[in-house]
From TrEMBL:
Name of this chain's protein: Glycine oxidase ThiO
Superkingdom: Bacteria
Organism whose genome encodes this protein: Hyphococcus luteus
Cellular component terms per the entry's GO annotation: cytoplasm
Pathway: Cofactor biosynthesis; thiamine diphosphate biosynthesis
Keyword annotations of the record: Oxidoreductase, Thiamine biosynthesis
Alphabetized Pfam families for the sequence: DAO
Length: 377
């Protein structure tokens, strides 16, 4: 089989690839999406399916070298700023509810060892114009009465938000389907230059052609330049809770708690660098639930709904890879645990780059060249 006629082929069916496809289609481009996760045969689902959906730039700043850390915060803040309008437009377009919740976020502390880094985080975020401040344990319990008396302080980020990733993926796919954008359930073996464009070759010999290619695949695609994206396994569990137990995301040492509209509370997530399996080990779930109960005692004994694992796409420095490689392929890779947060900003920035326009947010710090000339070439 040989299929021609696409302006842009997007390799990757997670939120980043789907959001970029939607933006490009709305600009009139002929786009095709290649989703290995739909191909079967043991393909790994996208990290988007396993994510909790936190939109939290306030908690991602400060872990990297200063300049890159500030760039990552600003990029995440741009994503967060776009999300309210993005969610409303997507829900109106598709008629599908994605459970976008701009309720803010709390990160709780049990002692000075927990609160000291939160105080530094709040100070740095505030210096960059973000809304983050430390509050007392009592003030935190006013916001979330179910919090344990052991909580002595918390970082409150009132502008942070969350969305349901599974509902989001469904809505993005519905948007593309309505525009008759083709999606191929194909695991690609390689992407080669051909004439002025590219040939994409599937593992079973399928062949496709496109003028431009975007690599937006996950941690184990095999197509990432120089192996710069690697898996970071994370396990999570969903439990059933009474309505209104928590009104916002609570981050605690060893766990985060994300309430969803359907009565689920997602507790996540472990981190295991280099693991590429989806086995959910009982000890991981036990640890998450124990840490969750320490923060919110009422979670003890709550019935489990499901447990799962996913593979975050990590990079050597923890920041995404955005731009082009030495072969002219566009890259939207390695968003680690922030793909949902970054999606609107990555879509607008990469679409501008692909279409030859000025991007509304600077993505130069995330270029492939930061890893050295060998990787860029």
């Amino acid at each position: 089989m040989s299929v021609k006629g696409f302006d842009i082929a997007i390799v990757g069916g997670g939120v980043i690839g789907l959001a970029l496809a939607r933006t490009l289609v709305r600009e009139g481009a002929r786009v095709a999406v290649f989703d290995a996760a739909e191909a079967g045969g043991g393909a790994i689902p996208s990290a988007s399916h396993a994510a909790a959906g936190m939109l939290a730039p306030s908690f991602e700043y400060g872990e990297l070298p200063a300049a890159l850390s500030q760039a990552l915060y600003r990029f995440g803040a741009r994503g967060l700023a776009l999300w309210r309008e993005y969610a409303a437009a997507l829900e109106e377009e598709t008629g599908l509810f994605i459970d976008y919740r701009p309720d803010g976020m709390l990160a709780v502390a049990y002692g000075e060892n927990d609160s000291a880094p939160l105080e530094v985080q709040a100070s740095m975020v505030s210096a960059l114009g973000g809304a983050a401040k430390m509050i007392s344990g009592d003030e935190a319990r006013v916001l979330e009465p179910a919090l344990s008396e052991a909580v002595i302080a918390a970082l409150h980020a009132p502008q942070d938000a969350q969305v349901d990733p599974r509902r989001l993926v469904k809505a993005l796919k519905a948007s593309l389907a309505e525009k008759k954008t083709p999606s191929f359930a194909v695991r690609l073996a390689r992407v080669d230059r051909k004439d002025a464009g590219y040939e994409l070759v599937g593992a079973n010999g399928e062949r496709f052609e496109a003028d431009k290619v975007v690599l937006a695949a996950g941690a184990v695609s095999g197509l990432v330049p120089m192996g710069l994206v690697y898996p970071v396994k994370g396990a999570a569990v969903a439990i059933a809770v009474k309505d209104g137990l928590l009104s916002r995301v609570v981050r605690a040492p060893g766990a985060y708690l994300c309430p969803k509209a359907d009565g689920r509370l997602v507790i996540g997530a472990t981190e295991e660098i280099g693991r590429d399996d989806l086995e959910v080990e009982p000890a991981a779930v036990t640890g998450l639930r124990t840490n969750g109960v320490k923060a919110v005692p009422a979670l003890a004994g709550a019935p489990e709904i499901e447990r799962w694992a996913g593979l975050r796409p990590g990079t050597p420095d923890g920041a995404p890879i955005l731009g082009q490689d030495g072969e002219g392929r566009f890259l939207a890779l390695g968003h680690y645990r922030n793909g949902i947060l970054h999606a609107p900003a990555a879509a607008e920035a990469m679409a501008a780059l692909i279409l030859g326009r000025e991007a509304p947010v600077d993505i130069a710090p995330f270029g492939l060249g930061r890893f050295g000339p060998a990787q860029h070439g």
